[in-house]
Fold this protein.
Amino acid sequence: MVDGQRDSESVPTTRQSLLALEYPGLGSFDDPRQEWRRLFSELLGTFFLVLVGAGGAVVNAQSHGAISRATAVAAPGLMVMAIILFMGAVSGAHLNPAVTLAFTLRRDFPWRRVPGYIIVQLLGATLACLFLWAVLGKLGRLGATEPGAGISDWKAMLFELILTVGLVSTILGTAARAQNVGPLSAVAVGGYIILAGLW
């Protein structure tokens, strides 16, 4: 079989993609010429996620308790759903170094792309916190995750570890290779984030 035939067979047609509830442009995920788009998408998605996730605590502090706990945990889950749907096919919507490393360890994502992804994820998160700080001030600990009253550091770390394993398992179980794409992945990952927050 010639290379052209193999490439055309490996990239799903629009009709096949729609039937599988997948984005038809998945084939460009490995195109080196599109790396800048993937890195920008990852930076933007991480910025939005941290803006909403940390923003709940900041707005709650600024508004003297107007944000309910249910709202504060639902907002990041809904944001992740939107991010997966609007940019999952571009960057994979990793949004977290742990997710990038998990895809890499599963051999779905090349090691050479890991440093760029982690750098832009950290940059996007930092920019979101700086934005909140500049606009609303240093309130609500800028959304930092800290142990609650009466919870020791090791117990909090254990809870975070278990919740992260659940998140990464959900992502790996619903992703297409190293990409969170489509409505099924969006609902599963966003729903897990809401569930973890409520728990």
